Amino acid sequence: MTDGAPGLIRAVETCFPRALRQRCLVHRLRNLHSKAPDRQWPEIAIRARACYEAASPALATLLREDFVQAYARELPAVVQCFTDDFDACIAHLRFPLRHRKVIRTTNLLERLFLEERRRTKIVPHAFGERPMLKLMYAAVIRAADRWRGITVGEFEQRQLRALRDELDRAHASRVAPAVPPSKPAAVRKLRS
Fold it and tell me: Left if phi > 0, otherwise alpha if psi is -120 to 50, otherwise beta: which for 3?
């Protein structure tokens, strides 16, 4: 889960090359709202949400093209914001239906950070590295209790395995050498 910070995006893609990166849709909608005229915002919001909450990535892509056609001439800044990093905005559509609502926003993570800021603000210099790690560990444990409410039945497990296999294949093709390695001369001689 990322917002638009290029360094964070690069770090996530470098450290977790097989993972899907999801943009926070709450923040993306706020960005769109800041660029859209107030009189047109309700219509733009409905169309953007329809795209982000589509049944599949393919349908989201079709809705994106419709959005671009509708606003490209009149509102290029809105269209640019909407299309920027679009695949990361709809990454949650590749997950099981029950999981999508939970993973499409950073709100849960932001609550963790707010809790940490709230506690460190009271006594700003009383925390060292070890107490801060304990505080964050406790906050993550509390958050994990909320995540346990996500149902992961056999059907969802199959979907997640299929998605993992697809991501592994895509990663393998990205890092595969462009030219297959040649066999050493000694091996070629033995075979002839």
Answer: beta
Q: At what angle do helices 76-83 and 25-35 cross, to 10 degrees?
A: 170
Query: What is the tens place of the pLDDT at every residue in 41-98?
Result: 999 999 999 999 999 999 999 999 999 999 999 999 999 999 998 999 999 899 888 8
DSSP state of 36: S
| Helical H segments across the chain, by residue range | 6-15, 25-35, 41-52, 57-71, 76-83, 86-89, 97-103, 107-122, 129-147, 154-175, 185-191
CA dist., res. 37 & res. 48, Å (int): 15
Report angle CA 104, 108, 112 to the nearest 5 degrees: 145
Q: How many angstroms separate the CA atoms of 87 and 150, rounded?
A: 24
| 23 Cβ contact partners less than 8 Å away, ≥ 6 residues apart | 1, 2, 3, 4, 85, 88, 89, 91
Q: What is the pLDDT of residues 9-31, one digit of tens each?
A: 788 788 888 888 888 888 899 99
Q: How far apart are CA 106 and CA 170, in angstroms?
A: 26
Here the tokens at position 88 are 């990361």
Residue with tokens 């890092």: 175
Are 92 and 104 in contact, with CB atoms under 8 Å apart?
A: yes
Residue reference for tokens 């070890």: 130
